[in-house]
Every structure is written in structure tokens, then in C-alpha cells.
């Protein structure tokens, strides 16, 4: 009797288990893993409610992105303020990066000239 009840309950639960709105939003924005995406796609074939929800979310995708952008901008500003002390380190890092890039460019240029010289001798 108990087992029967549990099975029935489990089936009911499985049948009505829809992804959360956040999961659907992640699906629309392509942020789910391929496995998760496949699961949502399988569910969408059987669930009209979620299919309609996806349509609605797709239409509002750009609108939904605005708060995300604002949050990202705010977060980046906060991060800049917090890392202001490390600015000198950053300058040193970018100087090193610039030197590396210049060296690579010189090597490429040298290689190009060597190649050019050998081919046209
Ligand atoms: Zn559903």
C-alpha cells in the first residue's frame, strides 16, 4: 500500500516537474550545459505550458538582459574601486604585456624578412 502510494506520487511529481523560470531563461540565453539543454528540449516537446513560457521569454530576452547588463556594469565599477590600490601592479602587468607583444612582433618581422630574403636571393 505504501509502495503503491509512493510510486503514484513519484509519477505525479515527474509528470508535473517543469524547469524553473530561471532554468528556462538560462535555456533561452544559451547558458545551460548541452545535457541540461537537451533535457529542457525534451520537456518542451511534452509540455505546452513551458513551450509558451519559452516563447514569452524569447520575446522578452533583450528586455531581460538590461538588468543583467546594469548589474554587470555596477559589479565592474565596484571591482574597479576595490582594485584601485592594485593599479600599479596592473600598469606593470600591461607594460610587461606590451613588451612581450613588441618582442613577438619583432620576431615575426625578422622571420618574415629572413624568409623574404632567402626566397628572392
Ligand atoms: Zn513544463
Automatic annotation (TrEMBL):
<feature type="domain" description="Putative zinc-finger">
    <location>
        <begin position="21"/>
        <end position="50"/>
    </location>
</feature>
<protein>
    <recommendedName>
        <fullName>Putative zinc-finger domain-containing protein</fullName>
    </recommendedName>
</protein>
<keyword id="KW-0472">Membrane</keyword>
<keyword id="KW-1133">Transmembrane helix</keyword>
<dbReference type="Pfam" id="PF13490">
    <property type="entry name" value="zf-HC2"/>
</dbReference>
<feature type="transmembrane region" description="Helical">
    <location>
        <begin position="91"/>
        <end position="115"/>
    </location>
</feature>
<keyword id="KW-0812">Transmembrane</keyword>
<dbReference type="InterPro" id="IPR027383">
    <property type="entry name" value="Znf_put"/>
</dbReference>
<dbReference type="InterPro" id="IPR041916">
    <property type="entry name" value="Anti_sigma_zinc_sf"/>
</dbReference>
Amino acid at each position: 500500500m505504501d509502495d503503491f502510494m509512493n510510486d503514484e506520487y513519484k509519477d505525479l511529481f515527474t509528470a508535473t516537474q517543469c524547469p524553473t523560470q530561471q532554468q528556462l531563461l538560462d535555456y533561452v540565453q544559451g547558458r545551460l550545459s548541452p545535457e541540461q539543454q537537451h533535457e529542457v528540449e525534451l520537456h518542451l516537446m511534452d509540455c505546452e505550458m513551458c513551450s509558451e513560457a519559452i516563447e514569452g521569454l524569447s520575446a522578452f530576452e533583450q528586455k531581460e538582459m538590461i538588468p543583467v547588463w546594469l548589474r554587470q556594469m555596477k559589479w565592474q565599477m565596484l571591482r574597479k574601486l576595490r582594485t584601485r590600490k592594485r593599479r600599479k601592479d596592473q600598469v606593470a602587468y600591461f607594460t610587461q604585456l606590451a613588451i612581450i607583444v613588441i618582442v613577438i612582433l619583432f620576431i615575426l618581422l625578422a622571420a618574415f624578412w629572413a624568409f623574404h630574403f632567402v626566397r628572392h636571393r
